[in-house]
Amino acid sequence: MEAREILNILDFIHGSRSALQDTVRRLEPDADWAIIVHLMRARILNHSVSITELIRKSGLPYGTASRRIQRMIEDGLIEKHVIGPGERRYELFPSSLLWEHCGQFVQRIKVLFAQTLGMRTDAQRDEEYFFGERRENMAGLLPPRTLFDGLSSRRAQPGLRFLFHQDNYFSSLRNLWVDIRSSAGRNADFELAELSELYEAVLANAAREVSDFDVVALNLPWVPEFVSKELVLPAARYRPTSDARRFHPAIWDCSSWAGQQAGVPLYITVEALAVRADLFEQNRLRAPRTPAEVLASASALQKAGGISGVSWNGARGSPIASAFMFFLNDHGGAVASAADRDECGFDIVEEQCRWSALLESDSARSTLEFMQQLLEVSAPDVLSFNGDRTMDEFMSGRCAMAYVWSMRAARFEFDLRSTVKGKVRYLARPNRHGARQTVPVGGFLLAVPSNLPRERMVLAAQAIDWMASSGARTSLAQNGLPLVPESGVGSDSEFDAASPVVSFVKELAQNRLLDTSMRPWLPVYHAIEDVLGEDIHDALSGLTSPSLALSRANRRIQALLDRMI
Length: 565
Known about the structure:
Layout: H1 3-23, H2 31-44, H3 51-58, H4 62-74, E1 78-82, E2 90-94, H5 96-117, H6 145-152, E3 162-165, H7 168-177, E4 190-193, H8 195-207, E5 215-219, H9 223-228, H10 235-238, H11 249-254, E6 256-257, E7 260-261, E8 264-276, H12 277-282, H13 291-305, E9 308-311, H14 318-330, E10 336-338, H15 349-352, E11 355-357, H16 362-375, H17 387-395, E12 399-405, H18 406-409, H19 411-414, E13 424-427, E14 439-447, H20 457-467, H21 470-477, H22 493-498, H23 500-510, E15 514-515, H24 525-540, H25 546-563
Helix pairs in contact: 1-2, 2-3, 3-4, 14-16, 14-24, 24-25
């Protein structure tokens, strides 16, 4: 069970108990409950608890409360952690035994609540649904009743199944789908995979005679490959009701290839530079605008604070490949370019253009030199960092800056473990000119596999329409998840206030600083990513020289580009 779900249930129980205390006069306070719930909440929210604070929360006289807490320590329910010299200062934490008991308790409450609501046939299996937080107008955010009716009328068939990316947006979307107040599906209907695993899983599913999934998520750079290989149905075939005019142009254009719409955009995310505004202010540093200033700021903060200067995705494979492509753009370069741009339209590049690899260039050499210098102000093991590790490094306060995707960055304000809430500023990517700083665009769309049986397409289309609807996305935007592709969602001040990254991305979009060209928009994109993920990592790991790595990568990518003609 997720920590936030435990917190939702504890808050619900505490609210009902408080109502009883307020209604029935002269009831004795339940000190044990008050102590337990305060310790559990503090642990989930990463807050420290002193003995004085816990005594006050118990509602008992000082001496009585002290004895009660000491008894709970002796019973193994509370642990003391010394935080100062000697043993005079310490903090209190719920023990693993108390955590286990509370977990069993909230699971039973969750099941009882689901049974009382009577909206789920699987109420006894608490792992299959989510206890959501309190919401006004919740009915407008849940999957529509017409979809429930469609599912119940096909009970002989399995329920809808989804293959999605493992991130906070898709996790929140799943939780809304399996909310305790709906009966649309179960957790088991969702398979969430990391990016590289998702690519292989979608390809493997496409190779089956009949698809195992009704709806799959496609990373935007994969669109040309999956459309050219006819692995997803053209959106026009299942007629989604989504209107192109509702969507941000940048992501709508990225959802098609050769004039064919691959699916319905779900969200966009941008990679920006997150900086600790408090540390920059304390050290009187200005925000970096060029790669050289990034290095200088990282070095200064590393020396001043005893933390690493900057984190970035340096792990072998997709993480370092994307990092290199984005840093290359910062230095004015590109992985490849069409021989004659004027003769090549956006949608006919594959058939009519000859492309050239551009990695034996000054900009590519400058980029690799910058990344080598970046190693000196990064954590020693940064070449093993993926997106999650980079996030954790920054969120825990172990680094001063981080190149992060905006969808993940929402965790800085909403993750219960974050130590940087309210301390983060977001910057467009510093570039060699220090002017018109842009950000690369990523994101996902929802698509229907081409091997899905025809009789399941209607329900798949209805599910996509709901997941990409204003209601579902408004719910997620209220939880601080950044800019969604629909122009109207996120335009209100309430969303700006939810998280600084929301207004940051919105402002970039309004100023047309979303860049969709930092990665080659080609059917061989994933193969190019594989090449860079190997050769660039080898160069930075010292396994080969930078010049040999760039030469080898250039040769291998040119072979891939020639194969398209």
